[in-house]
Design brief:
globular
């Protein structure tokens, strides 16, 4: 633990409410202890996810997540200490991952919006050499969600897919994985007018302007619709007979498959060749990265639901 402080800087909340009201900068947070299967990470960059502000609002309080707490799931940084059972990493390794295996259970008290955080070895992977820390931090929760969601519906080569919310953090990666990893025969995706060119660049064959067209009224139907925006009812009208709708948004429709990720470093490792070759690219919002001091402003921007790709915090601190 040479040169590692006992207390660290972090963004922390002690009560539930709007991020803008409850998230405070604290320069005297106790550094987290590591368990035998964990590593201590010097955080270089972190990405924000909707689950972060939902947690701030108290959506997870029934799961017994204690306060005060530091938000943040996605991390990229450097290993500074390893637990006795850790074999995959050594001090000095550059790593990235989603530090919470299940998004709503046993959530870390000190998340990634801090100078240091902890994570189980199995949740992390070595950072691809060609990616910056900001780019790496943008990926874990979103790319694992994209990949595992496609696996859940047995997506495979030759199938067609419609991605709802194609320019968002998860959507930008669904398009790329569907094309380069799974071998989709046709990819359609929805976005607003200004973002259609991005959809084409990512690999969408049919960009759909949701401000001008209703995707469920198109003559073409799809093997899979991946819903990242909460339109499962309409999505069910856009699938072929025997097709499937998978969604990451809570809904009341039993016909759509509700999916939530399980963080897994093995998925990141499996996708590493696609990232290192540049076939699959991290997409950061043009406003990213936000400096650590502007974390609250970054949350406000994320909450507009207008971000392209991911909102990232860097450098920390």
């Amino acid at each position: 633990m040479a040169n590692t402080p006992t207390h660290i800087k972090a963004w922390i909340y002690s009560e539930y409410g709007k991020t803008q009201d409850v998230l405070k900068f604290d320069t005297n947070v106790e550094i987290p202890e590591i368990k035998e299967d964990q590593v201590l990470i010097k955080v270089v960059a972190a990405a924000l996810n909707p689950i972060d502000y939902k947690r701030n609002l108290g959506y997870l309080r029934s799961f017994g997540t204690p306060l005060p707490a530091v938000p943040g799931y996605d991390v990229a940084g450097v290993v500074v200490r390893i637990g006795s059972q850790v074999t995959k990493f050594k001090v000095g390794d550059e790593v990235y991952g989603d530090i919470n295996e299940i998004a709503i259970q046993n959530v870390k008290i000190i998340g990634s919006l801090a100078e240091y955080t902890t994570a189980e070895e199995k949740l992390l992977a070595h950072k691809p050499n060609n990616l910056s820390f900001s780019e790496a931090a943008s990926l874990p929760a979103a790319i694992i969600t994209a990949y595992q969601g496609l696996e859940t519906v047995q997506f495979s080569a030759g199938k067609s897919i419609l991605v709802l919310g194609g320019a968002g953090g998860v959507g930008t990666l669904i398009i790329q994985l569907a094309k380069h990893v799974f071998g989709a025969s046709k990819i359609a995706a929805t976005a607003s007018t200004a973002k259609l060119e991005l959809l084409r660049e990512l690999g969408a064959d049919l960009p759909i302007d949701y401000t001008k067209e209703k995707f469920e009224e198109l003559p073409e139907k799809f093997d899979v619709v991946y819903d990242t925006v909460g339109e499962s009812e309409r999505a069910l009208k856009a699938i072929k007979e025997g097709g499937k709708v998978v969604t990451i948004v809570d809904h009341g429709n039993v016909s759509a498959i509700r999916f939530a990720l399980t963080s897994d470093g093995a998925v990141l490792e499996k996708l590493q060749p696609y990232l290192e070759s540049g076939k699959v690219k991290p997409i950061l919002d043009p406003k990213s990265p936000f400096p650590f001091s502007q974390t609250v402003e970054a949350f406000s921007y994320l909450e507009t639901n207008r971000a392209i790709g991911k909102v990232v915090i860097h450098p920390i601190p």
